[in-house]
Specification:
It comes from Aureobasidium pullulans. The protein has about 130 residues and is α+β, with helices and mostly antiparallel strands. The protein is about 25% helix and about 20% strand. The protein has one domain: N-terminal domain of TfIIb (Single Sheet), CATH 2.20.25.10. The chain contains 4 helices and 4 strands. It has a 4-stranded antiparallel beta sheet with strand order 1-2-3-4. It is elongated, with a radius of gyration of 16 Å.
Length: about 130
């Protein structure tokens, strides 16, 4: 499960739907997997406005990955301005965190109710037991 996906998920319990603490889900005992992929600046520039930046930063901090800036970068600041059209370090870090890194095994935990969703072989199980539906 790509870390980018965690920026769009919240706890599935009805009691957590309106609770701010239910987002984002927090990885616990996460076994991370990194698969190198070609950098796609256009994709990152287009997805950047859709991201909850505070959640992206906290996810990176929780997993001990490179620290991102306090505020989301402006899309035009993600490429070097010296005419070389090279990506900045911030763009490379975003790519590594959101696109190349995934949770292979572990748990995703709701910050509100504490429910744990298992992740096995990169697939999260969001089915709730009947008593929690």
């Amino acid at each position: 499960m790509k870390l980018l996906t965690l920026n769009f998920l919240t706890c599935a319990r009805k009691a957590c739907k309106q609770e701010p603490a239910a987002f984002p889900l927090h990885p616990r005992d996460a076994e991370l997997e990194r698969v190198e992929m070609e950098l796609n600046p256009e994709f990152l520039v287009n997805v950047l406005p859709r991201l909850e930046w505070k959640a992206v930063r906290s996810l990176g901090d929780e997993l001990g990955l490179p620290t991102l800036p306090e505020q989301p970068p402006n899309p035009e600041d993600l490429m070097e301005k010296d005419g070389s059209n090279e990506p900045t370090q911030t763009l490379k870090d975003l790519h590594a965190l959101l696109v190349e890194t995934s949770v292979a095994n572990g748990k995703l935990v709701c910050g509100h109710c504490g429910h744990e969703y298992a992740v096995k072989e990169g697939i999260a199980n969001f089915l709730l037991p009947s008593h929690l539906v």
